């Protein structure tokens, strides 16, 4: 093979169109998969994909594509990539961008744009993306010059992964993307390790040593398996009780005696009481937002009565709501590595930690709910049937309360769920997870309403052989809203009923596996058949509409 043939297409003497430069830069960044809905506004980028070695997953709706990219970023720690067309494509994709922003997930979204000479005329599907995505993304830009494509893409990958990770949006004017230019490809983004000073670690250690009732709350973005391992070593050595923030329950093996539950929606009331009773709160990575603090009630605003140590990579987050006694602007991993390396003192809070763990164990005891098929039984069986590395995904809805309460996560990145509370997330997240980790079991839990937000992406799973298992909690209503409705306006039902299809038959119409389950006795065998089918699967779980949540009935 000649020397020229071995060079990147963008480095040969012949100029290349912008779409080719863009895809070559993505390849340099190590991108192996991108999600899209094809559009005429970025045809040159689609052309650049031909023979580039990047798998292009064609989805069914832009919201699903963006959520798949977000889930990919959450699972791998590397930016998920999505392409959507201008106007309606971008507005559809905004749901996934919002998830990435609130979940601190690295992601890069490319959006088609009208030609440069047509801007500011309200041309066909023209949108000012800086204004539209400004509040939803870390950085939004529009590439004006073809030769600057590698520069913009490189910066996008730096921004998406730096500090508090998050989404970046790059708009691609159609004529800019089709124009030709010479431009060298840039080496992949170099990540800055956001370490803490020795003085900061000393301050954390000194404060912990003085505490009598400490409790850690962990969460946020930028974590890895190594971060989770460092947390386990630190918590075990210090015998420190650790609670997970909303939908970060897989950051610490739930079987460890130091894990005491999740501080999220529907928090265990006794855990909430422990947080209030604590004399020190060590928060690592989490934002201490509304969900984690039960509507800002677990800690006093703005100065908590507990000594607050807050570790977060974004300085803007420190002191945003709560004034910390010790504020450390650093990544979770280097801080936890440093803490795990410190010699643990003789602590006097063993009984405190044991009491907090007992609160969690008590919360794990199933509480019976109405109906022949009970979600508490479903989750208990998943605990027994699935391996430690199985990935569970979900969106939003009361059905997820059973999962959060009863499932025990045993390893890092086995929970993919939106802290933004977005419905429809579970299915596209499951597709992305199975494509990224085909050797692992991937189970999506969804309500009937949640599933139908993005149900078309089951077709994507079938097309790409993503053999996920979808468990649909089918109660014929928007259960969360019905719960609030019955509490605020009892007996006055409005806008929450649903008429559903035969979900099992719908799965079979794709040539996939589908089965309806109506009682506890049938679930285990149905799950086994779905796992053995070698196909994407849907189990339609007919649950009693009276079972609104693990603690509330209609």
Secondary-structure class: alpha/beta
Instruction: Using the coordinates above, name the CATH class of the largest domain.
Output: Alpha Beta
Largest sheet: 6 strands, parallel
Query: Assembly type of the shown chains?
Result: single chain
Low-confidence runs: 1-13
CATH superfamily of the largest domain: Thiamin diphosphate (ThDP)-binding fold, Pyr/PP domains
Helix content: 25-40%
Could you tell me the CATH topology label of the largest domain: Rossmann fold
Write down the domain tally.
3
Mean pLDDT: 94
The assigned CATH architecture of the largest domain is 3-Layer(aba) Sandwich
Please state roughly what percent of the residues sit in beta strands, choosing from under 5%, 5-15%, 15-25%, 25-35%, 35-45% or over 45%: 15-25%
> What order do the strands of the largest sheet run in, or round the barrel if closed?
3-2-4-5-7-6
